[in-house]
Amino acid sequence: MRYHCHKIAVALALASLCVLPSGAQENKPIGVNLETIPYPFPTVYISLDIQGEALKMAYMDVKPKEPNGKTVLLLHGKNFNGAYWEQTAKDLAQAGFRVVMPDQIGFGKSSKPHRIQYSFQLLAKNTRTLLDSLDIARVHVLGHSMGGMLATRFALMYPDRTETLILENPIGLEDWKTVVPYQTVDDWYKSELEQTYDKIKNYQLTFYYDNQWKPEYERWVHMLAGWTNDIDYPRIAWNSALLYDMIFTQPVVYEFGNVQVPTLLIIGQRDRTALGKANAPKDIQQTLGNYPLLGKKTAQTIPNAQLVEIDDVGHLPHIERYDQFIAPLMKFLAAH
């Protein structure tokens, strides 16, 4: 694999560091599968044999004290994992829902393959296999960011398993490859190898929170930045590069009209996220990631869709403005 060519050099470079990046809070190696990071609920695993590799898919399964017979499947974004659904899962369980939160292969506590061809179809199939193992027939599917692309693909592939579709600031509402120059997997990999705590924090500060930082956001930086100090970071970076290529080359935007289930869009209006935006021509950059416009357009394209717009909120409504996120979600679920 290409990442092996850099592994020794990267390890030596990391070993030479004398101090942590500025502002880092215990930015220490955290384990290739987040072994040192506690999750809010017990972590369970299923085994998957994918393209010749024996892999483990981690998930959390929260069962309510007073079940209402319904299950919500929570799908995380590219720079996150199932742990950031903690408060959402607690409130859904309190309302009677069973809540399943997988870490997709390549993310969080799940395996980081040595060699794999990623696709949203593969991730959707893995997710269905997880649900089958739990004897869960139908789910309300909620996806955030990249998880919104996966949730849409799941609903398209398995409409009989999907009660409703909820998309929280999903990416992929436009086809970036039509206007953004293509980056190879090697290009993405090189960029990932150059990640640092400061770069990761500054990205989140700028694009997620509009420079409105809160101490509770630090944990989501640490779960990414801690990897950069790991001896196996090249493998993590290689998986990340493959996943970026998947996101960039496999849009779902052209298939929104085929969604058959009731859909809720929760869109933070300050969000301007767009993959590869910095590589686009200057005049094009300003048009990308326009979530106020994209949310309206997507709601008009998906049959039986509702749109909830949250003012002055960026890419992470369920982290930045939880009350404004959970209220419309609960209302929608109650109606279905």
Automatic annotation (TrEMBL):
SUPFAM superfamilies: alpha/beta-Hydrolases. PANTHER family: HYDROLASE, PUTATIVE (AFU_ORTHOLOGUE AFUA_2G14860)-RELATED (PTHR43798:SF33), MONOACYLGLYCEROL LIPASE (PTHR43798). It comes from the Bacteria. Residues 1-24 form the signal peptide. Residues 71-321 form the AB hydrolase-1 domain. InterPro entries: AB_hydrolase_1, AB_hydrolase_fold, AB_hydrolase_sf, Epox_hydrolase-like. It holds the Pfam family Abhydrolase_1. GO terms for cellular component: membrane. This is Pimeloyl-ACP methyl ester carboxylesterase.
